[in-house]
Amino acid sequence: MIENALILSAGQGKRLLPYTEDCPKCLLPFNGRTVLEWQIACLAANGVRNVTVVTGFHADAVDAVLAARPEDGVRVRTKFNPFFEVADNLGSCYIGREAMRQGPFVLINGDTLFHPELMKHAASQLSGDMTVTIDRKSRYDDDDMKVSCSQGRLHAIGKQLTADIANAESIGMLFFSATGGETFAGAVKDALRDPAGLKRWYLSVIDDLADKHEIKVAEIAGHTWCEIDFPMDMAAAGELTAQFRRQASLRGGHGAHLREAM
Q1: CA-CA distance, 27 to 62, in Å (whole number)?
Q2: pLDDT tens digits for 47-72?
């Protein structure tokens, strides 16, 4: 069982303005919980007990929300990324690399909502040191983090992949064994030795590693998730979290209630 998680929640989410004018994307509220609280609840439902959240924009507000969480058996700590305004999410991985060295862990983008059953299904497929969770659809647009894979193995990942080789997309959930975490943490550190690393996505490091290491994929077809990037995504996120509440018959609270309902 994976007991550790790293959530990258440092960004403001400028493409979501005006919703994120004074609110970090991870604190956007949907059906009684912030995005971050929904994520922690879903992680808790899958046995995660230690969560590291990398913060940046309005970090104090994130700390306050987390401090107000009721006791549910999940230890949550934050790590502040002072470079969040000048670096892409590779910088947040660098700040959170200590969490990558504490045993197997799951890495979550701070703008992805997912049902607990999605993570459970993805985790049931783990067989390697590094695994990228993927979904499939009929076509992929420029903003999708596209994946080229076959026979359970990732060959390439990036927004720039062409239509002739892209056959899946990353949903922003990656799993690492203890060995995989060490490999990834080292590669993140090496990538930031280059000044150009400040403008790189962390998945570009996964793309680099795929040339020398076996990167697995876990498929979640049929399971619900939502990435919150643009104002048009707000309605979808609201509908999805309302669905979560209906399915779990929640009465409020956090991870403990999800665990009871699943």
Answers
A1: 7
A2: 999 999 999 999 999 999 999 998 88
Whether this prediction's pTM lies above 0.85 is answered by: yes
The span from the CA of 248 to the CA of 212, in Å, is: 42
pLDDT tier for residue 252 given thresholds of 50, 70 and 90: very low
Contact 90, 192 (CB under 8 A): yes
Q: Are 133 and 171 in contact (CB under 8 A)?
A: yes
- What are the C-alpha distances in Å from 136 to residues 169, 222, 235? 6, 10, 22
Decide: 176 and 100 in contact? Cβ < 8 Å. yes
Domains of the chain, with CATH numbers? 4-254 (3.90.550.10)
Query: What does the block give as tokens for 110?
Result: 């701070």
Q: Where are the alpha helices (DSSP H) in the chain?
A: 35-45, 59-67, 89-95, 116-123, 178-191, 202-209, 233-248, 255-261
| 14 vs 150 pLDDT, higher one | 150
